[in-house]
Design brief:
The chain is 32% helix and 20% strand. By secondary structure, the protein is an alpha+beta fold. Helix 5 links the parallel strand 6 and strand 7. The radius of gyration is 24 Å and the shape is globular.
Length: 433
């Protein structure tokens, strides 16, 4: 298509060099940005109808699904990946290594025993493994659920962010659910690159009703309890679908904003490498994160101690705030999970956020509206403290420590945001409690 003065699309503007799609009904051309179609999405469309023509001809039609993946995914990010042999050597070495037993640091519980009273007693300071979800108040699809079911519920053209395991970076090439499923369903030995999906948030899709977080998470999650219902911009971090392929590996990290996280394995398995959030481990982690040789150093060798834990199908795993961890996928897996902020880890959550800012973490890898949420949390906790004071009730030591940490943090943020009334109210509540 050559650049000319002909007017196209619903915007009635000329071709500007950007991607356009052809309507098979009216023979018109439409800017992808105007009709919400990307070039990657167009690659799986067989017949496209614009909004006007779709009223007569029906919705667009997709190309038949490919049963064998022929595309060379190594070409998508050419020049940056390690060789497949290097990746296999690393994975095999990791599988054969000996790690400290996790029995002493992981609490195993029955589902019905995991309630907020458990967190009140232990402050959720160590990982928790629930081997049977009965009594957990968790809703997830059954074991027969597959990535094709995910595609059916999200739509074949739903965009997906895909990570290249060899570089630990998101691919520049855009994927949609159709192309991701074609890759995922390719036999492992025929995949030219190991790819991973770890950040597919689906709370606003048809998949959402099929997943409900464990009851204990819903009881304490700040996003649910502190974000006003009439205020837009509620953080969407509560429902994730993770689709890892055999050999996938996510390097050591701390979940954003110091969020705690729950995982439920529907298919496959996950191996976690866990490092406690001690002051020394954080110091070492910050140094490692800033090191130019980060990708060549296994952080488990640097930290004070690294523990290993294997999570099997049907099991649910809870990781507390601040725990540094890496994840290996020994076989193709399908996992559901979510992140949550809560009162039991206020200092650690704020400590992690401070570290993220210090490391200049990109905004797209931060908890959305993290600071705004904490102003709402402060308002919520002020009302709670005032109620306790009226009833002459004591305030738990951990909560007082967390509130003082929150107060100091809000004081720092208030230099950028005029929220002094809330800050003064919190100061008064703290002084009277």
């Amino acid at each position: 298509m050559s650049v000319d003065d002909t007017l196209y699309c619903i915007c009635r503007r000329p071709y500007d060099g950007c991607f356009m799609i052809f309507c098979d009904g009216c023979d018109g051309w439409f800017h992808g940005s105007c009709v919400g179609i990307t070039e990657t999405q167009a690659s799986i469309i067989d017949t496209y109808y614009c909004e006007k023509c779709s009223k007569t001809h029906g919705p667009l039609k997709l190309k038949p699904r490919r049963t064998v993946q022929h595309q060379n995914y190594a070409d998508l990010d050419e020049g940056r990946a390690k060789s497949l042999d290097d990746r296999l050597v690393f994975i095999n070495n990791l599988k054969s290594r000996k790690f400290a037993s996790s029995e002493g640091i992981i609490t195993s519980l029955q589902g019905e025993a995991l309630r907020h009273e458990q967190f009140e007693e232990t402050l959720f300071s160590s990982p928790i493994l629930v081997k049977d979800k009965a009594g957990l108040g968790l809703t997830v699809p059954e074991a027969h659920f597959s990535v094709l079911d995910v595609e059916a519920l999200l739509g074949s053209m739903h965009p997906v962010t895909v990570m290249d395991v060899s570089t630990q970076a998101d691919l520049r090439e855009e994927f949609v659910m159709r192309s991701w499923c074609e890759y995922y369903l390719t036999p492992p030995e025929k995949r030219s690159r190991v790819l991973n999906v770890i950040s597919l948030e689906f709370s606003q899709t048809r998949l959402s009703p099929l997943v409900c977080a464990p009851a204990v998470v819903r009881e304490i999650d700040w996003v649910d309890h502190c974000w006003p219902h009439d205020v837009p911009g509620k953080p969407k971090v509560q429902k994730y679908c993770l689709m890892g392929t055999q050999g996938s590996y996510t390097d050591f990290h701390v979940d954003f904003g110091g969020t705690s996280v729950w995982y439920h394995v529907v298919k496959g398995e996950k191996v976690f490498y866990l490092i406690p959030p001690t002051a020394e481990n954080f110091r070492l982690f910050e140094k490692w994160s800033n090191s130019p040789g980060q990708n060549e150093i296994f952080f488990g060798d640097v930290a004070e101690k690294c523990f290993q834990c294997r999570i099997l199908p049907g099991q649910t795993f809870f990781i507390p705030s601040g725990w540094i961890h890496a994840v290996l996928t020994p076989r193709d897996s399908l996992v559901f999970g979510g992140n949550f902020l809560h009162r039991y880890s206020i200092p650690m959550q704020l400590r992690v956020y401070h570290m993220e800012r210090m490391l200049k973490t990109s905004a797209r890898f931060l908890v959305p509206s993290f600071e705004t949420l904490h102003w709402f949390v402060a308002s919520h906790l002020i009302r709670e403290l005032q109620g306790k004071r009226r009833r002459s009730q004591s305030v738990a030591v951990y909560l007082m420590e967390g509130l003082r940490c929150l107060h100091d943090t809000l004081a720092m943020w208030s230099s950028r945001d005029v929220c002094y009334p809330t800050l003064l109210s919190l100061s008064l509540s703290l002084s009277l409690s």
